[in-house]
Amino acid sequence: MMQLYARHEEFRMGGGIRMNEGLNLFLQLAPEQIMRRLRRCGIEADPGAIGRPARRKDARESHTYSHGQDPASYRQHYRVVIFNLAVLECQPLGAGAAMNAAFLGPVRGEGGYGGAGARSNSGDRNRGAGISGHDENSYEGTGAGSNSGNSYGGVEIAGHDENSYESTGAGSDSGNSYGGAGGGSEMRGVAGAVRVTAVRALYSLGLDSGEVELRAMGGRRYVVTGITPLMPVPGKPLPEPYRAASRELARSLALEQPDRAGLLMGMDPEFLLLRESTGRVVPASRYLPMDGVAGCDAGPPGTRGVFPVAELRPAPRGEPRALLAQLMSAAREADRLIADRSLRWRAGGMPLRGWALGGHLHFSGVTLCAPLLRALDNYLALPMLLLEDIRAAARRPRYGVLGDFRRQPHGGFEYRTLPSFLVSPVIAKGAVCLAHLIVSHYEELPLRPLDREKLHAAFYSGDKQPLREAWPPLEAQLRALGGYAAAASYIDPLLRSLAAQQTWDESRDIRGLWCGSAPSVSGTRPARPEDTFQ
């Protein structure tokens, strides 16, 4: 395993992409600050080990388990090697060949950087840009032992009343395990939990490449015991397996079309059906099919087999305006299928206690890399947090952590940090067009205010004031982008709402906004606060 070198230099790929761009931040963090950062993201760390680099590779055989009379006795350790947030190796330290076979090597869809310049064809045209059919609530966290109940075993969401939905005769299991229904691009079970925990730990500390050591704590909880960032030594090539992964990433970046003309974008924002007279969620499966542009999907633990969450899955498109037209068409289809007009449609981050909703965005035709994710975090997730209802803060850290992503089998990826932006067409238009602009020009967006400790903490606690103070330079850079003028009619209403310090209302019935007198896709009508915000 690589040592922590005293000297380090910027690690750049082709096109000027900078890897481990938060390395200086990481090196300045004290052990207690590292632990706090990890804890905000729902990850535990060993206070006695976190200040040390991860165990050296050549020591793995003799340090298979923890020893001594302490609670960590005879715990399995894992060493995870990561480059650009892709797991290259996942080694159970000292394990035999049978166990190694389940862990070693990249999983399908994870080790590669495909999709650059290619328009996705995943075989499911109604699931966004190759969407895997996976919803917000069926993702069972990192297994890292956070206080929010991040486990993989169907643990009840904090505050979720499993009697708060109307029962249904649906008997099939929703598969709310890691990877979700039809995941395919992620590894399930213990191996998946180890990998996700390691990648999330590295990203939360400003890194994307290096090695993470974890200790199993039982109940699919894993504690971080060591982190070693990848640090290239001047004049020396990268060691394997980093060298091969670096070459592959460089090839993928080189294949991208000029101005990312091949960028394809999809989505699967979620909403709930509420019977207001009883305060109960009505399962979307009563009205919507599993597949289709308007469908149902799994819910939080305690709702297995019910498929209570509704989703809109517009067909992916290359242009934001065309994608938004597909979204409105999907909303009209949902309106047609949901015959009960007394039901209220609710969206946002957590419109009901225990019901976290997501607005997942899908991309192909662009190479996933850490700088792209960090641009989405700072230039998109930050302003969306400023607009969100105070209730949405309860969604984190179980969902909505910074840099939450999932690679897809078709070579694209899913950005999972945002809440459901179906709260209004104005918010949806602004979010979709802003996301497209950011992904198209992320190399020109270098600001990282969320790296700062105060703002990182503010994001997870929902403290808006320090984040609001950090927003103006970000907005100025967005407005200066070459593609901003073409998207201004979509994005400007959202920015005006930010300037007015408005927030959306998650108790609002959104059905009429989308299926009644909703504004056209042209985006020319000024946003009216009464249509959108509290």
Automatic annotation (TrEMBL):
Residues 122-137 have a biased composition (Basic and acidic residues). Residues 145-154 have a biased composition (Low complexity). It holds the Pfam family COOH-NH2_lig. Residues 46-71, 115-184 are annotated as: Disordered. This is PhiEco32-like amidoligase-type 2 protein. It comes from the Bacteria.
